[in-house]
């Protein structure tokens, strides 16, 4: 399903001069690799070599926007231009030299706005794509035209963020949709995204709020609101690097929490007349406190396995302005009734949570959703 190779029109061959050549370039590019860059010179050689090694037979373009790097990142990319263009990959490089970077969302938007591809392949400058990535995700995008396409990853250094990496690689295709409320964020992670440019433009541009703004999660949720799908190539196509300077570390837990609660209320709780919060501890009570007053009234119980919590009988919402203050029963999970919002962290109980859920013969996405 690779598109056929197409001959590029040079300036001398184009009958209409430079404008016609530019129009041909825009028409011809199948995939634009979108790469924001900020102080990434130590990783760029490996990243760009991997782009050079792609086995995709269609036309490709590398669109780079340098977000005020203070190292020689732009110089490194420029040094690769001849090799990439000799391989048939056109290169567009721009940037700015302001005193401060404008942020990942801004840099991605700039790289996209100057790109010409019918499809967008997002690439972080510190990651490395495997040779089959563009080809396989392009094929998947043809089958899922209004979707964000991800892939499995190899984490580097090996063993870092072990639970998170296992979640990325093992959730099922159905869970790509049902687990969008978990604290892990997008179920297909931003460094693996691939989509049609037409779908991206329909969803809209990335938030340009800068440092601390989860532009990927905001876009991901808005894509779902627009009716977009989520899919994954079930093959490792990216080496996903972990390091302390990664932009994701600047996003606060509270910011993510609010986005998730709002999306949960909008997409799930608005459809339910009542529900149970699975976890009478800190995380379950926090979710309750963050709910709207209307959704707080829908909470018929908390449930747990901790006998000490169950013996207390009730959770009293002390901060409530209601009189008398709301008192929500605390039950053993076997005595509680669906639907549930699960506020117990995945992959942290040695399989006990999963066994308990299975024992009740519940269906994820109907009888319960994971929130943590």
UniProtKB/TrEMBL annotation:
Pfam families referenced in this protein's UniProt entry, alphabetically: Glycos_transf_2 (PF00535)
Keyword Electron transport: no
A GO term for molecular function: hexosyltransferase activity
InterPro entries: Glyco_trans_2-like (IPR001173), Nucleotide-diphossugar_trans (IPR029044)
Organism domain of life: Eukaryota
Record-annotated Glycosyltransferase 2-like domain positions: 32-200
Region spans: Disordered: 1-26
The entry's keywords: Glycosyltransferase, Transferase
Keyword Transferase found: yes
Annotated protein name in UniProt: UDP-GlcNAc:betaGal beta-1,3-N-acetylglucosaminyltransferase-like protein 1
Lineage: Eukaryota, Metazoa, Chordata, Craniata, Vertebrata
């Amino acid at each position: 399903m690779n598109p056929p190779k197409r001959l590029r029109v040079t300036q001398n061959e184009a009958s209409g001069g430079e404008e016609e050549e530019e129009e041909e370039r825009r028409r011809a590019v199948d995939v634009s690799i979108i790469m924001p860059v900020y102080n990434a010179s130590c990783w760029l050689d490996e990243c760009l070599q991997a782009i050079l090694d792609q086995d995709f037979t269609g036309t490709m373009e590398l669109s780079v926007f340098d977000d005020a790097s203070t190292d020689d990142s732009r110089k490194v990319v420029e040094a690769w231009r001849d090799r990439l263009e000799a391989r048939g990959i056109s290169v567009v490089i721009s940037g700015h030299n302001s005193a401060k970077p404008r942020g990942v969302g801004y840099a991605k938007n700039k790289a996209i706005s100057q790109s010409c591809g019918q499809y967008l392949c997002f690439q972080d400058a510190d990651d490395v794509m495997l040779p089959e990535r563009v080809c396989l995700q392009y094929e998947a995008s043809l089958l899922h035209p209004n979707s964000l396409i991800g892939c499995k990853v190899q984490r580097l250094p090996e063993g870092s963020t072990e639970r998170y990496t296992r979640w990325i690689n093992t959730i099922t295709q159905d869970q790509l949709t049902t687990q969008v409320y978990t604290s892990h964020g997008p179920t297909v992670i931003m460094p693996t995204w691939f989509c049609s440019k037409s779908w991206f433009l329909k969803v809209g541009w990335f938030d340009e709020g800068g440092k601390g703004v989860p532009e990927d999660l905001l876009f991901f949720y808005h894509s779902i609101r627009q009716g977009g799908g989520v899919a994954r190539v079930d093959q490792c196509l990216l080496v996903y690097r972990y390091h302390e300077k990664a932009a994701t570390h600047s996003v606060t837990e509270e910011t993510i929490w609010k986005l998730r609660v709002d999306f949960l209320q909008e997409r799930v709780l608005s459809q339910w007349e009542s529900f149970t919060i699975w976890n009478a501890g800190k995380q379950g009570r926090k979710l309750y406190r963050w709910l709207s007053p209307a959704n707080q009234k829908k909470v018929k119980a908390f449930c747990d396995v901790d006998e000490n919590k169950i013996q207390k009988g009730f959770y009293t919402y002390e901060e409530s302005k209601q009189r008398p203050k709301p008192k929500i029963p605390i039950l053993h999970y076997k005595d509680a009734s669906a639907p549930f919002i699960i506020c117990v962290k995945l992959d942290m109980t040695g399989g006990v949570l999963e066994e308990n859920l299975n024992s009740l013969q519940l269906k994820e996405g109907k009888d319960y959703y994971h929130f943590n």
